[in-house]
Amino acid sequence: MHIPPGQWWLKDQTDYWTDDILDAYLALFAKYQSRIIMLLSAHAHPGEVRAPVSVKQPNLDLVIMMTPSISPLGLLQPGYTIIDVTPSTTKAVWRFLQLQNYILYRWPSFQTVDLEKDY
Amino acid sequence: MGNYLADPPIKLLDYVLSDISGYGGQIDAISIAGDFVVHGLCNSDPNHANWPKMKDVLLAITASVRKQFPGVPIIPTMGNNDMLNHYKSPSEDQKAMFYGDLYDIWFANTSVSGVRDTFMQGGFYRVDLAEGVSVLSLNSILLNSKNSEKETASELLQRKWLED
User: Which domain holds residue A4?
Assistant: First the structure.
């Protein structure tokens, strides 16, 4: 999906999804969460990993991965996610082009963020 | 190569794709989580959709990914900037054209099969990657709070499909 459940703040608090739809889908996610590895989304541009807490679904235990954008719009480094799934493990890294190094020096430098080690 | 105040030119996309291919490991699938189209191109006025220009962008980006990763399944989803009108589902009389065009760009003549029926119903679909690993691609435009074109029928179909 592109727009995940949740909220964001720019000038004020904004809910990504409508309330009735959020309730219905969170109930589904909670019901089947043992079979869900993660919710993969985007939309916000910086990479984010969220662990939502729901009053209505107190047992909800899911991870939302909001992958970073390739677009540098908004003073961001162009990024992407590599997800490695095995039957028993899930690993993810983000890779970010250090765009200023390429613009200034034609230096092709990428930085790797290991989400398990670094967070 | 781009700058920090704009969306990327195709050269920057290709540069990042080349890093992905060189990073190591087998790539089984590529998920593109929406917003193929540059900010500001999809229109807020339903009478002035820029769909032909937007399709050119969608085609160019999809072609770049396919060129770098021939044969690798691409699992795309639509973002708010990929819609005929910003953040809005297509109207009932636009659905066949909109989802049909996206299907042709993203899936026609590719290894991703069996997705057409649900995709045409509302832009959602399932891809099985390996034993026990599937991707369920939801159309979150149907769910978002800024969607004034409530496509309730498609959303209910998506919800039922998800549970099934």
Answer: 1-67
